[in-house]
Amino acid sequence: MLQIDQLPGRTILADGREYLFCSGTSYLGMARNAQFQALLLEGMQHYGTNYSSSRISNLQLRIYDEAEHHLARYTGAEAALTVSSGYLAGQMAVKALAHAGRFEYAPGTHPAAWLTTDLPAAPALSYPDWASALLTRLAAEPAEPVVIISNSLDPLRVQRYDFSWVSQLPRDRPITLLIDDSHGFGVTGVAGAGIISELRVPEGINVVVVSSLGKACGIPGGVVLGSQAFIGQLRQSAFFAASSPVVPAYLHAFVRAGEIYREARAQLAANVQQLAEAVQPTGMLQSFNRFPVSYISDNQIYNFMLKRGVWISSFPYPSPTDPCITRIVLSALHTSADVARVAELVTEFASTTS
């Protein structure tokens, strides 16, 4: 495992050599965006570097309500609640639903949405087959409450999930659908608003979306999106009262960075399209429209790219004993020339394996 002394951006310096950096999850490049950094500095000058207080104390900072109203308007959700991490957002939501019904986990559900620390039994099915089997089982079972938990997409092998199956959910029982959108929020959906902006759910289904804000959005925090009633329930919980809030300076930057995000999404979309079109004949990369990550099944590409000055993502996940996952990750920081270089190398590698 390599250690470096600077935050990755478009490139990194490692062992005295500069590499084009095609890894990580900073999809919109906010951590290295000078305009965003200026807004963050403005926020720190106004709010300081941290706010070490409970969100239910008798003195509140207005920026939290401002950011949460902004998130609700942006996504179309009834209400939003910010917390200090995406993991906390998932845990807060899932624990609030602990008695809302039997839990049904989709394949690959992120640990942030596990009710316990034990790995839920993983369905040995593809996502479409799991969804089909779930619908069949629900139709045959007594009408008991159910909580269905899923990621919005598979960020490892880069597959976007089709949620059209939710239109067939039974209407004769309480059903909650909890979706972790951490890798989609900010880059997928309508204007980057994620899965909630595209989801079509029958009336009566309780929808909860949780997400990290630290990936595309560059905010060290998380968000829960849901109904006014559910978000109100979370606000009254001891879990929320005892947790640290998002650093307010980041929320100050977030609500003022709309145009910065729009420009970054446009650049990222252009980069993704350029790479997809250039490498399509090779059949090497597995990806989907507008998403900046591509999966490669042949792990040998990692050393091939590394020798040629391109650092891509390749490591066992989620545990050190799991198989290696190799991916190429683009960001809004990459230039057209960067993308052309990556495409050139992918094409060259493909020619050596054919």
Number of helices: 10
CATH class of the largest domain: Alpha Beta
The main pleated sheet reads as: 6 strands, mixed
Derived from helix and strand composition plus strand pairing, the structural class reads alpha/beta
Q: Which second-level CATH architecture of the largest domain applies?
A: 3-Layer(aba) Sandwich
Keywords: Aminotransferase, Pyridoxal phosphate, Transferase
Protein name: Aminotransferase class I/II-fold pyridoxal phosphate-dependent enzyme
GO molecular function, one term: 8-amino-7-oxononanoate synthase activity
GO biological process, one term: biotin biosynthetic process
What does this structure look like?
This protein has about 350 residues and is an alpha/beta fold. It folds into 2 domains: about 10-35 and about 260-354, Aspartate Aminotransferase, domain 1; about 50-245, 3-Layer(aba) Sandwich (Aspartate Aminotransferase, domain 2). Helices cover about 35% and strands about 20% of the residues. It has a 6-stranded mixed beta sheet with strand order 3-10-9-8-5-4. A 5-stranded mixed beta sheet has the order 1-2-12-13-11, with helices on one face. Strand 1 (about 10-15) and strand 2 form a beta hairpin. Helix 1 packs across helix 7 (about 250-255), helix 2 crosses helix 7 (about 250-255) and helix 8 packs parallel to helix 10. The longest helix has 22 residues, at about 260-280. The model has no long low-confidence stretch (mean pLDDT about 95).
